[in-house]
Design a protein that fits this description.
The complex is a heterotrimer of chains A (about 260), B (about 220) and C (about 400).
Chain A (H helix, E strand, L loop, with lengths): L1 H7 L3 E10 L2 E7 L2 E2 L4 E5 L6 H7 L10 E9 L2 E2 L7 H7 E4 L10 H11 L6 H11 L3 H4 L12 H13 L5 E5 L7 H14 L4 E5 L3 H7 L2 E7 L5 E8 H6 L4 H7 L5
Parallel strand pairs in A: 4-9, 4-10, 7-8, 8-9
Antiparallel strand pairs in A: 1-2, 1-3, 1-5, 5-6, 10-11
Chain B lengths: L3 H34 L2 H32 L3 H34 L8 H24 L2 H6 L4 H21 L4 H33 L8 H6 L1
Chain C lengths: L11 H37 E8 L16 H11 L2 H11 L8 H13 L1 E6 L2 H6 L1 H11 L4 E6 L3 H5 L12 H32 L4 H13 L4 H15 L1 H4 L15 H26 L2 H9 L4 H30 L2 H6 L19 H9 L4 H35 L2
Antiparallel strand pairs in C: 1-2, 1-3
Helix pairs in contact in C: 1-17, 2-4, 8-12, 8-14, 8-16, 9-12, 10-12, 12-14, 13-14, 14-17, 16-17
Classes of the chains: A alpha/beta (about 260), B mainly alpha (about 220), C mainly alpha (about 400).
Chain lengths: ~260, ~220, ~400
């Protein structure tokens, strides 16, 4: 009984998740429980597999030929890697924002509308575009030139356009893979504010190199590092406040105080 | 190991805390000596020297803020800096107690009252000793030692109660001296408070070491019981 | 040199000298390339323009009492009637698809010149000799052909473009060959473009890294280097012989074409020839589409086909067009395969469709350069210029299209 309740209250749950590239075990035995409508940050040193973990949540790793996984990734209690699950459906429910802003070489309007259109959106597209651009805090800046190319925007605006584009598909979860690493500090803070607002409706999981960002912007933090086989392991997972003021594990402490390695 | 700049600056801050601590210890001990000698000049010097304590406190606070702003300390580092900030304030207050004692010396002049010098000296020794060891524990981040020190506060409290009764008896015997004897109550109160503040320093030491914050001073609870 | 920047043991001067020498070598390489190009262009131009010494077979002053240009149409017709046999006149009218009565005086005049006066170029001189040694040429002509007239002549002229093949150099033109070449290009692109792009998409987006696909890839890379004559043999065997029913149009009920030596067979052969080039270039264009674009698309819940159709292909299209330009350039200049699949230089009927016998510009050029009369060399040079202009215009169209697409896209 309690278990089913818990299951319903989790956005994503991984069970004994191992991720492989060929024979190399990139991530080992992750049991992560992502709380819905919260921001969960994944931090850790380079090569600890945090991006691989993030991409396994919407099966973006499927495009890497040598990739395979063991264990389960549960979404609404269903394993998204089950044979009867179409990865296209998974990605529609679990959207993604990438490291480098990557708008389509199309107009701002089409950037937002395209995803909805291919997923069979039949209602008023103008309304959807306006609504999602507002959600992404971009509407006021672009409302007069929706026909301009998405690539004509600044880096920060492009990234917010990419967020709007993801929102237009109406996902439940938004995965963000170092979404601010190509942005200046002001644009970064804007995205963080935006994430905070979006977390009222969406579950956000963010991978970041920037510890300060994880500390500022997330509710929960998972710290990953490499074990002696260079496989990524989850060392500690908890409330961000606790992780950054009083981590339980020495390795977390060393990493967040900058004394790693 | 990265973060050498931060580590070096934190060590410097700890040294400064010890320095400030020893200034306060000196001031407290000198205030007892001034009382024993009824030395108004020495009392005046204590009051002047308190300015240096205050200055040092502000300098330390500033240095910590700069370090937080520029080095973005996390976890243990952050707790340490926050604790220094807190201890800093405690030390400055203890410096004020020494100053208060010095003012008492000046107000007493050479009035003819019985000063329970033995008890007051003992209280001062106890309080300064606690302070000294609490600062050692603080810098060493020694939680065990920090846990042990507050227990000594009971001794100070007992001495306080004993001396307080002596002074009240004196007031009853010589009502014309009430004002002056009352000043002495202030003095013993100051040492009692100083010992309490040492307890706060010990709390901070445990906080740095374990990340846990809790009240060590159990006097109030006992009073309620 | 003295002061802060001078160091006693500096080898800086030496390093600068070495750099200077290399710079000179690179400049020389460029200069040699440009020189070769200039020589080529000059050689061609040298043949296209120049002085000609022309002798009329029949003295035109004996045909009428006034200059021929001033005669009325009926007077010109009278001359034709008198000097040209009835059979010949009938042939002319049948071949040209007109009757003498309906054409204007100007054309009748042309006929009189061609059939009666028969001006013959006895000597032609290259452009630079004509410009700088005119006196010597005039002296030479006066001695060898006393009744010849000398004038400056451009072998590349309107008649050259509009006339079809003729055995008389001055009357020969490239119209048939030009249409033949254009037909071949259209068929080549129509055949090779979709197949090439399709194959490229398959190989880049769908094919796994299995050894079968690696073998296919290696083969395509190698096919791009196979000599064109081999493709000619292939085209002859497949399109002309085996599939002659299709390439001659018999299977579709088209009459009048007996063999598979049609423009369709030629276009398909050329298509095979350029297919590897197209595939390789299209593959590169598809590969150059940033992966982030595909990821963005997949991340929105797009299928692989939606990703390819909406993002990969539009982004790769400029690059694919570049490959097509290269392919067209190759196809328009190829001669050997066309000879094998049966291009004939003696055709003066424009291709009427894909099931027509044909000739093509390179075939005409090849044919003319192998003839003994010097004047054919002149028209061969003129045809080369036509070929180059066609090639450059086709490329210009493709480049303009590509630039427009590129500007709109990012």
């Amino acid at each position: 009984m309690t278990e089913t309740l818990e299951k319903q209250h989790l956005a994503i749950e991984t069970r004994d998740m191992h991720l492989f590239y060929g024979h190399f075990r990139a991530v080992k035995d992750v049991d992560l429980q992502v709380i819905p409508q919260k921001i969960t940050a994944i931090i850790g040193p380079s090569g600890c597999g945090k991006s691989t973990v993030l991409r396994s949540f919407n099966r973006m790793n499927d495009f890497v030929p040598s990739f395979h996984m063991e264990g389960e990734v549960l979404f609404h209690g269903q394993n998204i890697y089950a044979t009867d699950v179409d990865p296209v459906m998974v990605r529609q429910r679990i959207g993604m924002v990438f490291q480098k802003p990557n708008p389509f070489p199309k107009s701002i309007y089409d950037n937002v509308a395209w995803g909805a259109r291919i997923n069979g959106f039949k209602e008023n597209m103008d309304d959807l575009v306006e609504q999602t651009l507002r959600q992404a805090a971009l509407w006021d800046e672009v409302k007069d030139d929706l026909r301009k190319s998405g690539l004509s925007l600044s880096g920060g605006q492009q990234q917010r356009l990419c967020i709007a584009r993801a929102l237009a598909v109406k996902p439940e979860i938004i995965l963000m893979d170092e979404p601010c690493s190509a942005l200046d500090p002001i644009a970064t803070l804007k995205i963080e504010d935006l994430m905070r607002e979006l977390s009222e409706q969406y579950t956000i999981i963010i991978v970041t190199h920037n510890m300060q960002q994880a500390a500022r912007a997330s509710d929960h933090t998972a710290f990953f590092t490499m074990d002696e086989d260079r496989a990524g392991i989850m060392v500690e997972y908890g409330e961000t406040n606790q992780i950054f003021t009083n981590p339980r594990d020495k390795r977390t402490e060393d990493y967040i105080t900058g004394r790693f390695g | 190991m990265p973060r050498e700049t931060l580590d070096r600056q934190i060590r410097q801050l700890q040294d400064e805390v010890l320095l400030l601590g020893s200034m306060v210890e000196q001031a407290l001990l000198r205030s007892v000596e001034a009382l024993r000698q009824r030395d108004v000049a020495a009392a005046q010097k204590i009051i002047r020297d308190d300015l240096a304590i205050n200055e040092k406190r502000y300098a330390l606070e500033n240095a910590i803020l700069i370090l937080i702003a520029t080095q973005q300390p996390m976890a243990h580092d952050l707790r340490l800096l926050a604790a220094i900030l807190e201890v800093n304030i405690e030390l400055e207050r203890m410096g004020d107690y020494a100053k208060g004692n010095a003012k008492v010396v000046m107000q007493l002049g050479d009035s003819d009252i019985q000063v329970p010098m033995r008890e007051i000296s003992r209280m001062a020794e106890l309080a300064v000793g606690m302070l000294h060891r609490s600062l050692s524990a603080f810098v060493a981040e020694d939680a065990t030692l920090a846990h042990a020190i507050p227990e000594e506060d009971e001794l100070v409290d007992a001495l306080y109660n004993q001396t307080y009764r002596m002074l009240v008896e004196q007031m009853i015997a010589r009502p014309e001296m009430i004002d002056h004897v009352n000043l002495l109550i202030w003095v013993i109160h100051n040492f009692e408070r100083a010992a309490d503040r040492v307890t706060n320093i010990c709390e901070r030491t445990v906080f740095i070491a374990t990340g846990e914050l809790f009240e060590m001073d159990t006097d109030d609870l006992e009073d309620i019981e | 040199m003295s002061g802060y920047f001078s160091t006693p043991k500096s080898n800086l001067a030496m390093r600068h000298r070495v750099g200077g020498v290399w710079k000179a070598i690179f400049f020389l390489s460029t200069a040699i390339g440009l020189l070769a190009l200039a020589v080529l262009v000059i050689t061609i131009l040298d043949d296209v323009f120049g002085l000609v010494a022309v002798v009329d077979k029949v003295d035109r002053t004996t045909l009428a009492d006034r200059p021929l240009e001033d005669l009325e149409k009926d007077e010109l017709l009278a001359i034709l009637d008198k000097k040209v046999s009835v059979n010949r006149l009938r042939t002319i009218q049948r071949n040209g698809g007109f009757t003498l009565d309906e054409i204007p005086a100007g054309e009748v005049y042309e006929l009189v010149i061609a059939e009666v006066v028969k001006p013959t170029v006895e000597e032609s001189y290259p452009l630079f000799d004509s410009l700088f040694k005119r006196a010597e040429i005039e002296a030479e002509v006066a001695q060898k052909h006393p009744d010849a007239t000398i004038y400056f002549y451009s072998w590349l002229n309107q008649r050259f473009l509009t006339n079809s093949m003729s055995t008389t150099p001055q009357l020969a033109g490239v119209r048939t060959a030009l249409f033949g070449s254009l037909w071949i290009i259209v068929i080549t692109v129509a055949f090779a473009f979709p197949i090439g792009v399709g194959a490229a998409i398959y190989l880049e987006e769908y094919a796994s890294r299995s050894w079968v696909n690696r073998v296919i890839q290696t083969n395509i890379d190698n096919l791009a280097g196979v000599p064109s004559i081999v493709y000619g043999i292939l085209g002859l065997a497949i399109f002309v012989r085996t599939l002659s029913a299709l390439t001659s149009g018999k299977a579709f009920g088209v009459e009048g074409v007996e063999t598979g030596r049609t423009v369709l067979a030629a276009g398909l052969t050329m298509g095979l020839l350029v297919l590897p080039i197209l595939i390789i270039n299209a593959q590169e264009a598809v590969r150059a589409v940033p992966n982030s674009l595909r990821q963005a698309s997949y991340g929105l819940g797009a299928t692989q086909w939606q990703t390819i159709w909406h993002h990969v292909l539009p982004s790769a299209f400029p690059g694919i067009l570049t490959g097509t330009i290269l392919a067209v350039s190759r196809a328009i200049g190829e001669t050997a395969p066309l000879i094998l699949v049966g291009a004939s230089s003696l055709i003066n009927k424009d291709p009427q469709g894909i099931f027509s016998y044909f000739t093509a510009l390179p075939i005409q050029i090849y044919n003319w350069t192998s003839r003994p009369q010097a004047e054919f060399r002149n028209i061969a040079a003129a045809a080369i210029i036509v070929l180059l202009v066609v090639l450059l215009s086709l490329n210009a169209v493709a480049i303009l299209t590509r630039n427009r697409l590129t500007r709109r896209a990012p």
